[in-house]
Amino acid sequence: MALIKCPGYPEDTLRSLAERLPCRETQLATLLALMGQPDQYSYPSVFIYGHRATGKSHVVLSIMKDLELPHASVDCVECVSSGLLFHQVLSAFFGPDAAALLPRCPSLSDFVRLYKQMSSNSPATQTRYIILDRAERMRDMDFSLLPALLRLQELVNDNVTVILLSEIVWEKFRPNTGCFEPLLFHFPDYSKAELVQILSWDHHPSYTPELYASYINILLGVFFSVCRDLRELRHLAVLNFSKFCEPLEKGEAKESDIHKLWKNIEPHLQRAMQTVYLREVSSVQWEQQFFFSPLPVVLSAHAHIELPYYSKFLLIAAYLASFNPARTDRRFFLKSHGKIRKTNFLKKHEKTSNHLLGPKPFPLDRLMAIFYSVVDSRVAPTASIFSQISSLVTLQLLSQVGHDDQLDSPKYKCSVSLDFILAISRCVCVCVRLYRYQYYKFLNDTQPYI
Amino acid sequence: MSEIPLTSSVSKGCFVFKSASKKRKRHVGVGGYLVDDSDENGSDRFRICQKLWETVQTNTEVIQDQLNKKVLDSLAEFIKKHGLGCSSDNWRQRARETPTAALMLGVNVPDHAMTFRSLCNLLQDSVTPFVVSVHAKECAAVKLLIQKVLEQLMGRGVSVDEEQEDDTALLQRTQCTISALCQWYKTVTKKCTQVFPQRTESLTNSDLPQSLPVVVIFKDFEAFNSQVLQDFILICSRYTQELPFIFIFGIATSPSAIQHRLPHSVSSLLCIEVFHSLSCTQHLASVFDKLILNSQFPFKLSSRVIQVLVGIFLYHDFSVQNFVKGLQFSMLEHFKSQPLSMLCCQKQEALLSAKTLSKKNVERIRHLPSFMRYVETQEPQEQVQLLTNDEHVKEVCQQLLKNLHKYHKNYYPILQCLHSLTSSLPKFPLGKHIRELHVSCIEKNLWETEEYDSALQLLRILAKDELVAALRKCAEILKSTKILQNVLQQLEDFIGRLEALEGVSSEDSSGNGIISGKMEYQRTDLFQLQKTLLEKESRRTKRMNPFEVLRSQVIEFIDSLVREYLTPAELQPLNEVCYYNSSGVLRQRLNVTPRTSIQAALSHPFYYLQNESLKTDAGTISSAAPDLCIVYKLHLECGRLINLYDWLEAFLTVMSAAEDQDTNSEECGKYDSLKQLFQRWNFLVSLNQQNRRLTMWQD
């Protein structure tokens, strides 16, 4: 490990910092070099990007906290308005009294003015840092906010640096009017070896670190292909460790019997990947399964929804309206549709699967027309049928599109899958397949080969 | 001016028709609607109706509480567990998982409000005072959602503690953040521990100051904007250490809605457990048992009305709340339209009011179809008495009321018995639910239906243990009602005899065993085998074993019970007093068809406007009618295809007949807007746009 040196900071703090941030030494050194000595001016804005859980905020905040630098850390998700951001920055630097001076709906210039006023009273002896986590949210705020923050140093004439943390690259941020380019800095993903090294850190006190390291190796063997999120892996490691140790506690195996332990834990981890990792089963239930009860039914297994009778038909009709071309309605829903020539029936541009294209919007009238022909009995167009359509919309089984002509002819889309519709139609004994355009096309396409 | 109504144009959007009698009393009490000049006991009926409605309300609430008790208790348990356990295991804190309960409520959205209300009350009483419930409508943005949460929490804090009021008044919009909530929570919990030290101790079992969780209930999870939800969860997860949040998602569809709404990065912050509430059909069944299949409840619904109400439930909304509303409506309608409904109350009361029937009401009783049928069955002398002597009618009436009550008392236990017998049969010939059986019983003679025959056929081939179990169930039902003791006696007698058969039947089976044993030794040609089998078959048909004899006796007995007690209600004299049977009105009121009302309004404007000058004969077109109606009637006179020019001409002719002025251009403008309105209502579809003379297609 290269010893990190940086003048102006106490050396033992730096050493402990480097120890606390394994596998991030180079990033730490570069950041410290960028920051320079505490009283020196730093680069006005730094943009740090990298995937989830690559240690961006952790490294930056550890530096700030350990070296006791003046900083304001703001999560942009929380800042539903820019005023909140200003408020947090000012109260971190100059105390809550300063923040209270902000007007009710502060503008950027209010913030700059107040900052200037405050910093003239207490000029910065050390560089002040503003750390903006999840900076991608800034793009949704006021368009002038980001360019202004990037050169805040100039604006307020103070030794201040803005550090932006984000999961996406800078190119997606750049406003089209142009702006000051921040210093870009990438945090790469952890490699597998690095993950092992980091995860082995929190080994259980009652077992040897070697055992835990081998456990982590097994865990990564299962999960590394689907998940490289350190936080998630750590969560899974803690969840499953007790199961790993079970043979040891029962005395069935020794710590050296790695193969036996592997055989014991492997299927368990595979199951965890399908359930806990996807949050199909909550972590508490996962833990309790050994002690009390068998695993509860997973979340996605309860796909069935009880619907009123006509709602089912409305959904079926909506599905057909969404995925069948409108011109084929005559063919499917009229009793005396006559014969239809194949060449006309299948248009060329409709050769691609409708399911790849997604549901198409349809007007209410078409929905009702298909509905009346699908339902076998005579149905009066009662108000409750129409209210069922709107309740299907609130349940998000249908979605309303276009907001221009709500009263006259609202348009809808069907947002449920074919499997769902097939399950419903089995309940009400309607053969949806017969009505599906896709089905006919399939027959038509495959006939030469049969 | 006031004589001629102004119906100049639809573009004005409303017509003012002044009521002819201005002196009508403005403030009539609710009960006043039932009081007529010709009717002296309207207030009595209103009182009875109100009393009945109160019992309905309390009953439904009790049922709801009972049904929800299990799921609500388990929810409260879940929250308690997480509220206490969270701080102890710190690894979950590191993963920043927020405990979340997914409460599956079913698609009957109108019923949810009641469940959430009782959930809120339960949580506030037993777990934590910090319960917030939010509705998607109020939370279109994260800012609003946070504001709502803060308002509800801090507002509650104020109501608990009066001194804090000036502090929260200072709360500015800018400080509307979760961190502000954190500050508030710290001070409040500190105060709580000071104010009720015993309570918190009993809750925490340790000296941890933070223990009371903050429960946020999302009432309609599906309707929330997913971005708002994601942001809110992300923000809250930052504060899990300081603020023990617990979420409850009220989900109407299925738990997979969570996965559709939230990406993995967000759902990994939740620790989700699923809770199922009772299905709405079960809820309906228990409401039905309590309110309709109950002899204590004097108001009854006829089979048609039940079919309408259950149909609305099954076909349209699945909402028990709406079902009860329908029941309420039919109750009001019954007490309003049927003057004799004053007799529709508990037995003693009904007998009392039967004694003091007025002359008019006696006459009304004589005109009841069921009473007339009763009279016809009597001796001629008695008939004369009944038609002339008021006092005699009153006495007979009392007797008939007693009979009616007795009929109901016997009817329901027997119905339940029959249901318990037939509900386990394959293919459910008499219906899966007791309500179906009830409907077919009160509609017609059950024993004349095919379904009943097939059910009896199936009962005749029941095995012994099944039969005994079914009969035991019936005996239990009868035991709990404490009437029909003789029937119960007979049933128990049958059960005893069936059980005594134990030895006999086993002997019989052993006999069979011997025969089969013999067969094995013989082992000859096919012909022989066929012969012996045929022989066996014929022997069985000839001679029933004792069990079969007894079984057919039991079935006979059940059949006789059905014929005696499950007679249709319509055959009972005076059934009109208790039974509400105008299903047409109910359907018209509860299951409205907008298009029919539009058509009615257009073709008969008098129906809605109630203005004398609009009364017209069929076929004629009055120029006094609103122009919309005129256009509509003219369009009805055309065929499938309408020539717009002719239509306009006809319209102008009618209009000018009224005004004999030359305001053609104005009329044309009016006509144009009317045409557009018709297109909007889908009465017309434009057929050919290119022609200058538009031709329209009449829908």
UniProtKB/TrEMBL annotation, chain A:
It is found in: Nucleus. This is Origin recognition complex subunit 5. GO terms for cellular component: nuclear origin of replication recognition complex. GO terms for molecular function: ATP binding; DNA replication origin binding. It comes from Cyprinus carpio carpio. Residues 20-163 form the Orc1-like AAA ATPase domain. InterPro entries: AAA_16, ORC5, ORC5_C, ORC5_lid, P-loop_NTPase. Belongs to the ORC5 family. Keywords: ATP-binding, DNA replication, Nucleotide-binding, Nucleus. Transmembrane segments: none annotated. PANTHER family: ORIGIN RECOGNITION COMPLEX SUBUNIT 5 (PTHR12705:SF0).
TrEMBL record, chain B:
One of its GO terms (molecular function) is DNA replication origin binding. CDD domains: Orc3. Component of the origin recognition complex (ORC) that binds origins of replication. DNA-binding is ATP-dependent. The specific DNA sequences that define origins of replication have not been identified yet. ORC is required to assemble the pre-replication complex necessary to initiate DNA replication. Binds histone H3 and H4 trimethylation marks H3K9me3, H3K27me3 and H4K20me3. Transmembrane segments: none annotated. Its main location: nucleus. Component of ORC, a complex composed of at least 6 subunits: ORC1, ORC2, ORC3, ORC4, ORC5 and ORC6. ORC is regulated in a cell-cycle dependent manner. It is sequentially assembled at the exit from anaphase of mitosis and disassembled as cells enter S phase. This is Origin recognition complex subunit 3. It is found in: Nucleus. InterPro entries: ORC3, ORC3_ins, ORC3_N, ORC_WH_C. Residues 7-343 form the Origin recognition complex subunit 3 N-terminal domain. GO terms for biological process: DNA replication initiation. Residues 595-670 form the Origin recognition complex subunit 3 winged helix C-terminal domain. It comes from Cyprinus carpio carpio. GO terms for cellular component: DNA replication preinitiation complex; nuclear origin of replication recognition complex; nuclear pre-replicative complex. Residues 355-582 form the Origin recognition complex subunit 3 insertion domain. Keywords: DNA replication, DNA-binding, Nucleus, Phosphoprotein. Belongs to the ORC3 family.
